[in-house]
Amino acid sequence: MWVEKYRPKKLGDIVGQAEPVGLLRSFAEHKELPNLLLWGHRGVGKTSSVLALANELYGSHECLIRVECSDFIEQRKKWLREDKLFRRYYDENKPAMVVFRDMMREYAALAPINAVFKMLVFCDADMLPVDIQQALRRIMERSSRTSRFIFVTTRPGAIIPAIRSRCLNLHFMPLDKSGAMDRLLNKIAEHEGVELTGAGLAMVKHYAAGDAGTAINIMEAASLLSRRIGGKEVMTVVRAAMTRRNKIRELIDNAYSGRYDKLRAGLKELIHTEKMSGKDIVAELHDAMLVMQSDERSLAKVMVYTGDTDHRLCEAFNSMIHIEELLLKISKHHTSSVK
Fold first, then answer.
1. Which of 73, 111, 149, 291 is 20 to 30 A from 281 in CA distance terms?
2. Tell me: the pLDDT tens digits for 213-246?
3. HEC assignment per residue over 220-288
4. CATH numbers and ranges of domains, the chain
5. Closest listed residue to residue 289, CA positions, set 271, 306, 310
6. Can you give the pLDDT at residue 181?
7. Is the separation of the CB atoms in 291 and 303 below 8 Å?
8. Are the CB atoms for 302 and 294 separated by under 8 Å?
9. What mean pLDDT is predicted for residues 134-163?
10. What is the percentage of the chain residues whose pLDDT exceeds 70?
């Protein structure tokens, strides 16, 4: 896949992020590192910068432990049981959150063999419940000699103040505002021997909405249709990729019609098959309702419902329960407004 093929290996390869990357390069040169909070939109280079930093500090990712928080929160014990790094900590008789806390404490306390400290990286850190964040804050304090904690997020406000205050906060800017996205996509097109037209570039950027990973994926899929990527090829790819959005609309239609068995089946498919997080589903529901609601009072009510659900998902153990409740509220409100 082009996303991994062109993922930067060194900090100098990161585009459009001169200020945060400059600081990370300084840390790499001095072989020292504070705890970090990296925040910004999706696909702007946050995770790639962490991986590149590990390469420059250690020469590999051997001393880096990466936790995909969204996967853990959505799958809990299944994730602990199946992940090759963490499954030795799995205990069927303990709650998943307790196992997670205990294994983080143990990993953080162990000193690496060939380095002064290891890096514990939490991607989508805003997905972690407050009690787990509180536990990590205490682990950070006790493990300052052996570990550095790096929190990667699109929503810094969802990270508790106790962690934010213990981290150096680095903001990653949108790539499309600096022209970095254009340079990146044109460079990849040149390396792959495809022609990216002006219209094709504009449409890729539009549908990617600032996410470099999404932009590269669209361009790679379009290159399978033609070696000349124009607006037509991009639109063909985007239409196929809008399946999720159509399934979100089906959820709403099933809620309006009272087809709750189909609603639940569709929701399960999005979470387990499409691998959408609870927060992603709520965000898509929010966008879909903005288009579907014409009455201002009804729209305001729905926005309150979605906002409340989004807040609750920050500490939720089962996102499906809260999304089902949201859809039920939307259904009841729709029924009462029609009457």
1. 149
2. 889 999 999 999 999 999 899 988 887 666 677 7
3. HHHHCCCCEECHHHHHHHHHHHCHHHHHHHHHHHHHHHCCHHHHHHHHHHHHHHCCCCHHHHHHHHHHH
4. 2-173 (3.40.50.300), 179-241 (1.10.8.60), 244-338 (1.20.272.10)
5. 306
6. 92
7. no
8. no
9. 93
10. 94
